[in-house]
Amino acid sequence: MGASGGETSADDDKSIGEVFLRSLLLAVFIGALVALLIWVRPVRKDPSFSMSVTDAHGLNPTSRVIRPAFNLTLGVDNDQDFEACREEVTITVYYGGSVVVGWAEVPDFCVDKRSYAEINVPLSHADVVLTDALRRRMAAELRAGELELGVEMRMVFPRGLLPLLCDECKESRSRQTLQFCSVKPGQGYAPCVHLFLR
User: Fold this and answer.
1) CA torsion 6→8→13→15, rounded to 10°?
2) Among 8, 47, 141, 190, which is least packed by CB within 10 angstroms?
3) In this structure, are residues 53 and 174 in contact, taking their beta carbons and an 8 Å threshold?
4) Distance between terminal CA atoms of the chain?
């Protein structure tokens, strides 16, 4: 009886040791797997947008009304591990928060993963007419380096874009997103602020 009890105790100790070893190996495996997933997971940072006004002209004509023209360039910095695409992009340029001085429809575009792209934005200003007083004020601000334009940019996520791959998509119920930039001509790129549309 005594020998049998000793064998049972040894077997129990051996079983407990095996269970502990297996649990330890499983925990190490799971920890290594989680660490690997964290290390290789795609970057979730959404693309950042910026705007530059490279030229402004038409502010110094002799006529009492003008049609100002501005050359815009859109910068897209895609720091993700997958291509970023936007559709139905429209841009409106304001002076003083309410005076429209140009607008544009930008063709759909895609930017490769971990890439930067610059997109020329040809503005239309055919129907823009400024009074002489407003023209003079804008011209004076331009000469002083103080002319500031507001750029509103609306764009749409492509259909079928998985929310898992797009933080913006998870934050907004709408496929449309709004970016706003305050830009001074000839002073480089200004970052755009992302405003969610619910």
Assistant:
1) 160
2) 8
3) no
4) 77
